[in-house]
Amino acid sequence: MKIAMGNDHTGYSLKLEIADLARSLGHEIIDVGTHSSVSADYPVFGRLAAEKVLSGECERAILICGTGFGISLAANRMPGIRCANCSDTYTALLSRRHNNANALALGARVVGVELAKMIVEVWLNAEFEGGRHTDRLKMIDEDMQV
Ligand code: RB5
User: Fold this and answer.
1) Closest protein CA for atom 7 of ligand 1
2) pLDDT band with cut points at 50, 70 and 90 for residue 143
3) 65 catalytic, yes or no?
């Protein structure tokens, strides 16, 4: 599948590793930057990658900043983006099965390279289960009153 990747300076070297892995699994990477370790603002690159998903150019996005949180926050402000910030494989798996996450965020200062690769592989291979989970996602999109 076509995957958009966006990162700030902290995520630059991890992005290269993850892009290599994804390509080796047969995926195509659209890298929206940043393209170096020079300080850069995560909201810019989170949004650029998320826009690729919303426009339909890419099926999913992988976003990387120091914690994964800032860039996931930026992406999740965009209606239609469901970004999971994951530092374990269980959350990554369930974010696809139950939440149909179309973006994955990683914290380059939180997870090591090998764990990050494992998280990405699990996340890329997992499918949404639909059913009751579809209704729950609809509740989020409809701004449900509790
Ligand atoms: C950059 O120093 C850092 O704030 C950023 O990578 C990210 O962790 C923010 O959430």
Assistant:
1) 66
2) confident
3) yes
Query: Residue 40 corresponds to which amino acid?
Result: A
Q: Is 9 a catalytic residue?
A: no
CA end-to-end span of the chain, whole Å? 37
* Angstrom distances, CA of residue 146 to CA of 97, 99, 139, 140, 142: 24, 19, 10, 11, 12
What is the value of pTM for the model shown?
A: 0.97
* Amino acid at site 137: L
pLDDT category, 19, cuts 50, 70, 90?
A: very high
Pick from 15, 63, 71 the residue to mutate for probing ligand 1's pocket: most ligand atoms within 8 Å of its CB: 71
Kindly state the tokens that stand for 83: 């970004």
pLDDT of residue 73: 98
